[in-house]
Predict the 3D structure of the following.
Amino acid sequence: MRIDKYLKVSRILKRRTVSKELALNERVEINGRVVKPSAEVKTGDIVTITFGSRVLKIRVLSTEDVKRKKDAADLYEVVGESRIQQAPLLEDEEQTCYKKDVE
């Protein structure tokens, strides 16, 4: 099954177009490799999704085409979840931002 479809069917993401955009922007990995939306996902694969400041790592348990909403969580298990720390602005950047706002 394609990764963009899998993310939608498993209800990790609400829309297939969103999962496609994430993959096109190199925010989806399968087994540590950045993939395109058309990449095939198989049972046992580790999928890492980065959206915003959140990173979700899952293990694929099944790739069934159609799943009811209440059974969608059975398609994967969460291996890890973390947040990306935002780098603080440097003092010069803070002053530049402030000056732009004031002008």
